[in-house]
Design brief:
The chain has about 350 residues and is an alpha+beta fold. It has 4 domains: about 1-80, 3-Layer(aba) Sandwich (Rossmann fold), CATH 3.40.50; about 105-160 and about 205-215, ATP-grasp fold, A domain (Dna Ligase, domain 1); about 165-200, no CATH class; about 220-325, D-amino Acid Aminotransferase, Chain A, domain 1 (2-Layer Sandwich), CATH 3.30.470.20. Helix content is about 35%, strand content about 20%. It contains 13 helices and 15 strands. The chain has helices spanning about 15-20, 35-40, 55-70, 80-85, 90-100, 110-120, 145-155, 165-175, 185-195, 200, 260-275, 300-305, 325-339, and strands at about 1-5, 25-30, 45-50, 75, 105-110, 125-130, 140, 210-215, 220-230, 230-240, 250-255, 280-285, 290-295, 310-315, 320. The strands form 4 sheets. It has a 5-stranded antiparallel beta sheet. A 4-stranded parallel beta sheet has the order 2-1-3-4, sandwiched between helices. A hairpin with a 2-residue loop joins strand 9 and strand 10. The chain starts with a strand and ends with a helix. The protein binds adenosine-5'-diphosphate (ADP) and magnesium ion.
Length: about 350
């Protein structure tokens, strides 16, 4: 029996359910938020759950539940190895450093004095990031020493809200002007300034650490490579005008010749080494024009990826000009482990 945590929104679970129906596979819908989830899973060998970074509930217990289910020999997507560093850029720093993956040079401090000392000795600009966040929402440029010191004070003082509703509204306005956001969306953004979002209101400020990355200039795009099992597909995302950030810009190119095969190679290798079920890699280039990983994430937004990729590369770097049904692959790979 396959358990699917069902969610009607923009979630993998819709395709997972359809796949089971089309292939006559026994499945049932469960809710991981229920207190009796262990009972609900009694007759199940597999759990599929699209855990998301913007749901405060998932952040509270998803990793703990997944780890516990592995002790019960239930196969889970995402499994713990795939999940534990999700929406945690600090965790990813250690993980990628541990295997010598080409992460952009990254610096983390858990002590105000140490951070301030480092600021006096290093060069600027640097990229400041919260460990959580997506769509470039919590990624900023620390322009100079003074700016970085101010960030350190905040990081070891009241901290940073997990969402900055003012810059989110600015981003909505930018997209509205480009015709990529509705007027209703804009009004919603203004309302959110006052009422926040469930995620913002239920999470505490990020504080007690500060995280920077070396700023790699002259990148007009980032390359997002997604690896599901050992199949890789990719697209290019352009940076916003007068900005250095691509993620969430809304401008992307999916043609095969937009993709640097070196990034595909690195992504397949890291996924293989770390036994990751599904991972999106963001690549940019350093001054020697070598690809560097900016961050990784087990999940990616399904809607903008649906039916956009012209094909995928396999583990041997053979190109397959075929559909890219990534949700089906997630489920098929897990079922293969059960049989
Ligand atoms: N160290 C860096 N140097 C230059 N640009 C960067 C760096 N890190 C991130 N970026 C840009 O900022 C964007 C957002 O950063 P990322 O770490 O991927 O955060 P998010 O989780 O919001 O996607 C990336 O898509 C990339 O274009
Ligand atoms: Mg990113």
């Amino acid at each position: 029996m396959i358990a699917i945590h069902y969610d009607e929104g923009n979630s993998y679970s819709i395709r997972w359910t359809a796949y089971c129906e089309d292939n006559n596979l026994p499945f049932k819908k469960v809710s991981c938020y229920d207190n009796d989830i262990m009972v609900q899973l009694e007759d199940c060998t597999v759990l599929m759950w699209h855990i998301t970074n913007f749901n405060y509930k998932d952040q509270l217990f998803a990793k703990q539940l997944v780890k516990s289910l592995e002790h019960r020999n239930i196969k889970v997507f995402p499994d713990y190895a795939t999940l534990w560093h999700y929406d945690d850029k600090v965790g990813q720093k250690y993980l990628l450093e541990s295997i010598g993956a080409p992460l952009v040079d990254s610096f983390v401090f858990y002590d105000k004095i140490d951070a301030l000392k480092w600021i006096e000795t290093t060069s600027f600009p640097k990229v400041f990031k919260l460990r959580k966040g997506s769509g470039s929402k919590n990624v900023l440029l620390a322009k100079d020493r003074k700016h970085a010191r101010k960030m350190v004070k905040k990081a070891f003082g009241k901290g940073f809200p997990t969402l900055d509703m003012k810059s989110i509204l600015k981003e909505r306005y930018r997209k509205y002007k480009l015709g990529k956001e509705s007027f209703f969306g804009l009004v919603k953004g203004v309302l959110r300034l006052f009422i926040g979002t469930p995620f913002l209101n239920m999470t505490t400020n990020e504080k007690g650490y500060i995280y920077f990355q070396e700023f790699l200039p002259n990148n007009s795009f980032d390359l997002r490579v997604i690896v599901v099992g050992q199949r890789a597909f990719a697209h290019k995302r352009m940076v916003r005008k007068n900005d250095f950030r691509a993620s969430g810009s809304g401008e992307a190119y999916f043609e095969k010749d937009e993709v640097d095969i070196n990034c595909i190679k690195i992504a397949l290798e890291v996924s293989h080494t770390l036994k990751l079920q599904s991972t999106a890699y963001d690549f940019i280039y350093d001054e020697e024009n070598k690809p560097r990983i900016v961050e990784i994430s087990y999940a990616f937004n399904p809607a903008p990826n649906r039916d956009r990729h012209p094909g995928y590369w396999d583990a041997k770097l053979n190109w397959h000009e075929e559909d890219v049904p990534f949700e089906d692959w997630m489920l098929e790979d897990l079922l293969e482990e059960v049989v």
